[in-house]
């Protein structure tokens, strides 16, 4: 019966380009359906009171109200759980709000649809066709009017039990385990912030930036201990409700804690480790004008009430302050204290504060070259011509004591610090 009804289904040959599909329930399955619908040229809207806006934005889907979704869609695909509030939510009143000729797909739970109301909607033409994978009673009775209806396509709710599905799950598990062992972030972790694969991919370079900024900031603290307050400032054109920063907060914590302790920190235990160490994490977002296409413009890490081993990293408020951006997918350091710089956060970093005058860059560069230390990036930030300046130099290798001694003895170099990234 299932095979016969599928073969004669009127869905075959229907053009989907430009049609609107409403995804009712934007969890893992709903978002995957949305991705495929976008690939078929459909306009996709979704309703889910619990779905984060950033997940929908990453796929190119608009989140709308329940009534807006059902009243404007040509196709309605159900992926919501069965709860007291969703039981028979698709009933006579609901169907009356739909566009005449709508097509309904239910792969969620049979109980979310009033089956008698659906029959009436099919018979009066409100619902042109229905595709059902679930029923209120499973398996449905042999004399089920829905199963035998000429405008209904049915499947036996066995997708997860197919050979292909089992192979896919096995591969996904193996890939997740390998990724976790490599220290990569996993979108499928159940005890970590739930972030879709699309959002995770979008945030991935900022995750690297966040950890490196934390690691850099803690190395600027004299002694590396005594840190009690960390402030993370995100600048973004996105609405704060659209930006999930939990992973970024965790990675800043990881960057700060791991270099000064034996603790292994990840996004699962970051908040717990911070609490154990009495580390107070404050987050702030600066809303920028402009396009929200990129999730974040910059990340700034501030450490308050600590002594710095490099005075040039202190802001006017006396906090250690470092800021970075992602450029072409690579994290860059863009601010040290009050000094603007632009250096790729790769390998190791040498910061030198000096009086801004000719010849300093060449002298330090000559020392590094003589010691066979390769410079991969260099930037100079200054307050004003002839005043204080900072050189930020990326080097591939770690300089020995002799090289650092020579740099420290260079005329006009007032202080320097070597940082491992």
UniProtKB/TrEMBL annotation:
Pathway in which the depicted protein is active: Amino-acid biosynthesis; L-serine biosynthesis; L-serine from 3-phospho-D-glycerate: step 1/3
Gene Ontology molecular function: any one: NAD binding
Keyword Oxidoreductase: yes
Catalytic activity: (2R)-3-phosphoglycerate + NAD(+) = 3-phosphooxypyruvate + NADH + H(+)
UniProt keyword Plastid, yes or no: yes
PROSITE patterns: D_2_HYDROXYACID_DH_1, D_2_HYDROXYACID_DH_2
GO cellular-component term (any): chloroplast stroma
Pfam families given in the database record: 2-Hacid_dh_C (PF02826), ACT (PF01842), PGDH_inter (PF19304)
Domain named ACT: residues: 350-407
Domain of life: Eukaryota
Keyword set, alphabetical order: Chloroplast, NAD, Oxidoreductase, Plastid, Transit peptide
Main location: plastid
Segments forming domain D-isomer specific 2-hydroxyacid dehydrogenase NAD-binding: 3-159
Limits of the D-3-phosphoglycerate dehydrogenase ASB domain: 203-322
Enzyme Commission number(s): 1.1.1.95
Subcellular location: Plastid, Chloroplast
Family: Belongs to the D-isomer specific 2-hydroxyacid dehydrogenase family.
Name used for this protein in its record: phosphoglycerate dehydrogenase
Lineage, top ranks: Eukaryota, Viridiplantae, Streptophyta, Embryophyta, Tracheophyta
């Amino acid at each position: 019966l299932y095979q016969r009804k599928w073969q004669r289904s009127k869905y075959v040959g229907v053009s989907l380009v430009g049609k609107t599909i409403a995804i009712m329930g934007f969890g893992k399955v709903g978002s995957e359906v949305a991705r495929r619908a976008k690939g078929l040229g459909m306009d996709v809207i979704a309703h889910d009171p619990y779905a984060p806006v950033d997940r929908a934005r990453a796929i190119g889907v608009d989140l709308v109200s329940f009534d807006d979704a059902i009243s404007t869609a040509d196709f309605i695909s159900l992926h919501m759980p069965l709860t007291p509030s969703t039981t028979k939510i698709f009933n006579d009143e609901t169907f009356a709000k739909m566009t005449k000729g709508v097509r309904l797909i239910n792969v969620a739970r049979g109980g979310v649809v009033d089956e008698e109301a659906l029959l009436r909607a099919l018979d009066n033409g409100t619902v042109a066709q229905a595709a059902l994978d679930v029923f209120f009673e499973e398996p449905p009775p042999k004399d089920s009017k829905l199963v035998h209806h000429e405008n209904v396509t049915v499947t036996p709710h066995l997708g997860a039990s197919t050979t292909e599905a089992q192979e896919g799950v096995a591969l996904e598990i193996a890939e997740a385990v390998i990724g976790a062992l490599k220290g990569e972030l996993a979108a499928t972790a159940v005890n970590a912030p739930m972030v879709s694969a699309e959002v995770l991919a979008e945030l991935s370079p900022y995750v690297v930036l966040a950890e490196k900024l934390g690691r850099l900031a803690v190395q600027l603290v004299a002694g590396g201990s005594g840190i009690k307050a960390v402030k993370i400032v995100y600048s973004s054109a996105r609405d704060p409700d659209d930006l999930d920063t939990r992973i970024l907060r965790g990675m800043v914590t990881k960057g700060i804690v791991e270099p000064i302790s034996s603790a292994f920190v990840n996004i699962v235990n970051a908040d717990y480790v911070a609490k154990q160490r009495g580390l107070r994490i404050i987050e702030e977002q600066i809303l920028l004008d402009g396009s929200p296409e990129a999730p974040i413009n910059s990340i700034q890490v501030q450490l308050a009430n600590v002594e710095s081993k490099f005075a040039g990293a202190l802001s006017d408020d006396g906090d250690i302050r470092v800021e970075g951006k992602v450029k072409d997918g690579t994290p860059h350091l863009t601010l040290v204290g009050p000094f603007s710089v632009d250096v790729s956060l790769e390998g190791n970093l040498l910061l030198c504060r000096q009086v801004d005058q000719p010849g300093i860059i060449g002298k330090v560069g000559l020392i590094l070259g003589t010691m066979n230390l390769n410079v991969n990036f260099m930037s100079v930030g200054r307050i004003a011509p002839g005043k204080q300046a900072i050189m930020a130099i990326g080097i591939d290798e770690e300089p020995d004591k002799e090289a650092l001694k020579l740099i420290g003895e260079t005329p006009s170099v007032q202080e320097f610090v070597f940082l491992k990234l």
